[in-house]
Design brief:
alpha+beta; seven-stranded antiparallel β-sheet; Heat Shock Protein 90
Length: 398
């Protein structure tokens, strides 16, 4: 993935190599006007590359052959369930690139990917966006498709990347692969992003659902609860994820993403929300009022109660961290409990997964038994911001 500026720099180097070759062959070589400018440019580049190679421990031969490029290799399986460590590893690789190699070219190697979830794909989009923003500072993506680092010949994976809008998101409007249109068991709400509360997008989400299933058409109460939950998820990113003084390399304040997936065979709707803000732990400190902070301290001063980020997420689900509780605006701040309320009203089994910092919370609701099962776990490292995945299993509904 090369910017136009770096493509120009590559051409300069090729011109310099041609001049050197001509000089070595012809003793009466006449130097062009830009000879010394190019020499000065190449000398500076060699010094930078020498420092980089020394840091990486490369040999003298590699110093001459290795390109000035950082390659981010993606893992074979990327998701927030069985392979959540790959999400943590991706975060580390991207942060390392921004901290050390942001001035150099970069490539994202997709060749190893064998499976990737919709949530994992959305997170990948956010991480690449961090790099492009850190490099160019104008919100543009400046990337090109390189077949050398493209997807393997797996129609399922290629279909997912195409339909979810991965290539289009980065300005690659011509599909890099021919897609078999016979794959019709999966339908996607393409990746959308914004820095505002675009509730008009709610109509697009509902249209996506209504085009595939009748879950929202049967009862107005169900639709109302659904609207409530979606608005809460959108508002959360703007009101909790980004404090006024927010500033991190590669991140644009108030940014959030959403995408969706309908699996026709398994009859499951999945919606994914994500922001790369400050996460649940810092959000608690920024957004709770003074009185609420005192009340919270009384609840968590016992170390046996307060253990992890997953515990904080659970408290947010149960309204314990609401910014608005006991304050003026009683309509907002109900937390992610609204997702559970929708499940109970609709009569369908559902799963709510929230991941933030180093904590993961997963709630599974059984509609026929009216029971909830909660799983909490600690990640091997931190992820950026907060990811919310909401899955409704229509086949198993009452």
């Amino acid at each position: 993935m090369l910017s136009k500026h770096k493509q120009i720099r590559q051409k300069r180097r090729k011109v310099w190599l041609r001049l050197l070759k001509a000089k070595n062959i012809n003793k009466n070589f006449n130097r062009p006007k830009n000879y010394y400018d190019l020499k000065k440019y190449i000398t500076r580049k060699r010094k930078i590359l020498t420092r980089l190679n020394k840091h990486l421990g490369r040999s003298n031969h590699e110093k001459l052959e290795e390109p000035n490029r950082d390659i981010i290799h993606l893992d074979s399986h990327i998701d927030f369930e069985e392979n959540i460590d790959t999400i943590v590893n991706l975060t580390k690789k991207v942060n390392k690139h921004i901290a050390k190699y942001v001035r150099f070219n970069f490539s994202v190697d997709h060749k190893k990917i064998e499976s990737i979830s919709v949530a994992g794909l959305l997170y990948l989009v956010s991480q690449i966006s961090k790099i492009t923003e850190a490099k160019f500072h104008d919100g543009a993506h400046h990337v090109i498709f390189n077949p050398e680092y493209g997807l393997k010949n797996d129609m399922r994976i290629r279909h997912l990347f195409d339909q979810i809008g991965y290539w289009r998101y980065f300005g690659i409007f011509k599909p890099p692969y021919a897609i078999d249109k016979s794959i019709e068991e999966n339908y996607f709400l393409s990746i959308r992003t914004s820095t505002e509360s675009e509730f008009n997008l709610l109509n697009d989400i509902k249209k996506f659902i209504n085009n595939n299933v009748d879950i929202l058409k049967s009862d107005y109460k169900i639709e109302y609860q659904f609207d409530d939950a979606i608005k809460e998820a959108m508002g959360n990113s703007l009101e909790h994820a980004y404090p006024n003084d927010f500033h991190e390399a590669g991140k644009i304040k108030d940014t959030w993403w959403i995408c969706g997936h309908y699996d026709k065979i398994n009859q499951a709707i999945e919606l994914v929300f994500y922001d790369y803000g400050i996460g649940i732990r810092k959000s608690m400190n920024y957004n709770l009022g003074e009185d609420a902070n005192i009340a919270l301290f009384d609840r968590i001063k016992d170390a046996s109660i307060f253990k992890s980020d997953a515990d904080l997420i659970e408290m947010a689900i149960n309204e314990g961290l609401s910014k608005y509780k006991n304050y003026l605006d009683h309509d907002r701040g109900k937390g992610f409990k609204r997702f559970k309320n929708f499940a109970k009203v609709s009569g369908f089994d559902c799963e709510l997964t929230i991941v933030s910092n180093s904590g993961k919370y997963k709630m599974s609701y059984n509609a026929s038994k009216d029971t909830e099962q909660v799983e909490k776990s600690k990640l091997s490292g931190d992820i950026d911001g907060m990811l919310i995945t909401w899955k409704i299993n229509l086949k198993m509904g009452a």
